[in-house]
Automatic annotation (TrEMBL):
Name of the protein in question: ACT domain-containing protein
InterPro entries: ACT-like_dom_sf (IPR045865), ACT_dom (IPR002912)
Residue ranges constituting the ACT domain according to the UniProt record: 99-173
Domain of life: Bacteria
Length: 176
């Protein structure tokens, strides 16, 4: 269930004040339940969002960093003997910040159709990057804010439904 090595870089949920730590939607369970909300961080290496299976590890200063259970960095920490902290997502719907990569065959109006799919699912585009085409293939990278994380799978399906798009995946940093 756990993968190979990867980056363990952590940061606050949103670096420029778009969110506060209290908006992570994470509940710390067990004896560490007293972890202050501003000490709960979402790992940048795997960018967990509500509905992902998550685990957390203590960090200096009395906080915890939350990872997807499948995150290579979390798997590496578990294998090295670090104790995980039980955490779960809050039951109420929570928005999320997520980065998606869309791989497609380049064609006219592709950007417009992808951003239309984003808008139809309530996504706010925080940043967008389109890499120059290579052999007709193009990669779009979007950092988004979704009002409800449960919308993410539907959004990704809609993006895959845009003609020419052959893959949509969440970003996973492999080194930090």
């Amino acid at each position: 269930r756990h993968g190979a090595a990867g980056g363990g870089d952590t940061a606050p949920h949103a670096p420029r004040g778009e969110d506060t730590a209290t908006e992570t939607g994470i509940v710390v369970e067990g004896p560490r339940g007293a972890v202050p909300a501003d000490r709960v961080r979402l790992a940048r290496c795997c960018t967990p969002v509500p509905a992902d299976e998550v685990t957390a590890f203590p960090v200096r200063g009395g906080g915890v960093t939350v990872h997807r259970e499948s995150c290579p960095a979390a798997c590496r920490m578990a294998r090295s003997g670090r104790s995980a902290v039980p955490v779960r997502w809050r039951d109420t719907p929570t928005g999320c910040r997520v980065t998606l990569h869309a791989e497609a065959l380049g064609r006219p109006h592709l950007l417009a159709e992808l951003t239309e799919a984003l808008a139809e699912h309530g996504a706010s585009v925080l940043s967008a990057e389109v890499e120059p085409p290579r052999e007709r293939r193009v990669r779009h990278t979007y950092t988004l804010r979704l009002p409800d994380a449960r919308e993410l799978p539907r959004l990704m399906r809609a993006m895959r439904g845009v003609p020419g798009v052959y893959d949509v995946a969440r970003a996973l940093r492999t080194g930090a």
